[in-house]
């Protein structure tokens, strides 16, 4: 807060190391203890009972760090990127595979634990997490976990709209189809064979600025079409 230029310069130059500090997983601790953190107000506060302010504040920092734009609102899903990229390893199309979505029921959790345990014994799991994980050595081969983190997309999605001069996003605009798919394909296209060989289905954050520019260009081009 005392020196925003220095703050964002430090983040940009060390994004892979510091992203877990300003966003997941540290942001969860910040939410729990947000009332004990003294800082200048950075967003609207509704009441003393509201929680979770640490998440939007962390997201705002990523708009400038990853997207190169002033903080503003917006977010998008990134899970489809993992599925599209996983097809490069599994082959086929999305229609060729079955995807199971489980709730929080005890039975579902128990079945999930068994599936995960069996997959862990076979070394066949394709793993990605929203937070960073250390590389894993399995039978002499080192696997690197990719991050299924929406920070890949939501800053540059808005940036693409800004540079395309899209002054208004109408409700009827097919953001959930054309633009989101364009963004998904742009990000998935940044996953190279060298990343897949390490078990990664998302590109590394070390190249986030280059990746952000590529995605923003795709989003802007699609915005012009719409």
UniProtKB/TrEMBL annotation:
Gene3D superfamilies: Malic enzyme, N-terminal domain, NAD(P)-binding Rossmann-like Domain. Residues 1-98 form the Malic enzyme N-terminal domain. InterPro entries: Aminoacid_DH-like_N_sf, Malic_N_dom, Malic_N_dom_sf, Malic_NAD-bd, Malic_OxRdtase, NAD(P)-bd_dom_sf. Its cofactor is Mg(2+). GO terms for biological process: malate metabolic process. Residues 74-224 form the Malic enzyme NAD-binding domain. (S)-malate binds at residue 149. Transmembrane segments: none annotated. Coiled coil: none annotated. GO terms for molecular function: oxidoreductase activity. This is Malate dehydrogenase. It comes from Ilex paraguariensis.
